[in-house]
């Protein structure tokens, strides 16, 4: 059974070094245990004996009927185990999702944000070792011209890049879950997709970030972000922060086909984006 995206994303984040609260970690462990039991009983087979066929094969009536009853009882017990384990697994996931929904700001501010800060600190060191390849940090260029030390730094940066993306995926999953049921998109910018990276961060000093693609969230390359981290102060924003900011600074963009609400577009300076600058063709919106 597939877990809801938000539940799944935070579990993956735990594997990327995000230390979850004990209560949430225990819920994940419980679900894993129940799902292991479910997988075990699902794999078990219980054939119900055909009493008529057994009699035709030579079994006495009493034996044929008793074998049928016994095998049917085993099958019924196995079915009951499957139903019980399946219901328990669904309920465990639902309870986990409910807990996450009630504690999103805690998870982001106290558990996710410190890991991202650690990633930025490590990536900034690597960016310094690779500074001659700045500002693009093109992998092909590094592979072609790099020394063994440079290639080692590049490989280490790829690990950090993957960890950052896992952390951002948890952020996105929680933001989407928090805003998906808001009527008509009131007070929220809209549903984020992975091809719409804007809105995953806040620059405390956006005016210090000269790389517009990095500042506005169109580029998530860890080395490029880290190169501006010290100057701009990169961090993840909590849900309450995001809602407050979107309520303060928002501009409605044209409705897109198939959407139920107009997009609300922000840039990191907090100033409204003119509707004409919205990239309608790529369906991208930039959120603070």
Can you lay out the helices and strands and say which pair or pack?
Layout: H1 5-15, H2 22-43, H3 51-56, H4 61-102, H5 104-129, H6 139-145, H7 148-179, E1 202-203, H8 212-215, H9 222-232, E2 234-235, H10 239-248
Antiparallel strand pairs: 1-2
Helix pairs in contact: 1-7, 2-4, 5-7, 5-9
Short summary of the structure?
With 288 residues, the protein is an all-alpha fold. It has ten helices and two strands.
Question: Can you give a write-up of this model?
Answer:
The model is unreliable at 182-199 and 249-288 (pLDDT under 50). The protein folds into two domains: 22-102; 105-277, no CATH class. It has 288 residues and is mostly helical. It has ten helices and two strands; from the N terminus they run H-H-H-H-H-H-H-E-H-H-E-H. 59% of the residues lie in helices and 1% in strands. It has a two-stranded antiparallel sheet with strand order 1-2.
Question: Which structural traits does this protein have?
Answer:
288 residues, mainly alpha, 2 domains, two-stranded antiparallel ribbon, 10 helices
Strand content of the residues, in percent?
under 5%
- What's the end-to-end separation, in Å? 35 Å
Low-confidence stretches: 182-199, 249-288
Tally of helical runs:
10
| Order of SSEs | HHHHHHHEHHEH
Radius of gyration: 27 Å
Shape: elongated
Mean pLDDT across all amino acids: 79
Largest sheet: 2 strands, antiparallel
Based on the structure, what is the oligomeric state of the protein chains? single chain
User: What share of the residues lie within helices?
Assistant: 55-70%
Helical/strand content category: mainly alpha
């Amino acid at each position: 059974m597939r877990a809801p995206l938000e539940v799944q994303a935070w579990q993956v984040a735990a594997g990327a070094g995000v230390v979850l609260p004990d209560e949430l970690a225990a819920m994940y462990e419980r679900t894993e245990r129940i799902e292991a039991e479910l997988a075990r009983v699902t794999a078990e087979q219980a054939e119900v004996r055909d009493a008529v066929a057994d009699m035709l094969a030579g079994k006495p009536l009493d034996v044929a009927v008793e074998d049928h009853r016994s095998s049917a009882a085993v099958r019924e017990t196995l079915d009951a185990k499957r139903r019980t384990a399946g219901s328990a697994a669904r309920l465990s996931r639902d309870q986990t999702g409910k807990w996450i929904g009630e504690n999103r700001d805690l998870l982001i501010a106290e558990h996710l944000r410190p890991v991202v800060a650690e990633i930025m600190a490590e990536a900034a060191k690597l960016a310094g070792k690779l500074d001659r390849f700045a500002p693009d940090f093109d992998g092909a260029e590094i592979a072609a011209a790099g020394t063994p030390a440079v290639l080692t730094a590049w490989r280490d940066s790829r690990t950090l890049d993957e960890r950052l993306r896992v952390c951002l995926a948890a952020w996105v999953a929680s933001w989407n879950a928090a805003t998906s049921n808001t009527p008509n998109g009131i007070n929220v910018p809209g549903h984020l997709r992975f091809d719409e990276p804007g809105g995953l961060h806040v620059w405390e000093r956006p005016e210090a970030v000269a790389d517009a693609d990095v500042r506005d969230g169109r580029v998530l390359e860890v080395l490029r972000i880290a190169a501006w981290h010290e100057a701009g102060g990169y961090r993840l924003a909590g849900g309450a922060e995001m809602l407050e900011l979107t309520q303060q600074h928002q501009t409605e963009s044209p409705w897109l086909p198939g959407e139920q609400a107009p997009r609300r577009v922000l840039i990191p300076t907090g100033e409204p984006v003119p509707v004409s600058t919205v990239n309608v063709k790529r369906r991208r919106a930039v959120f603070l």
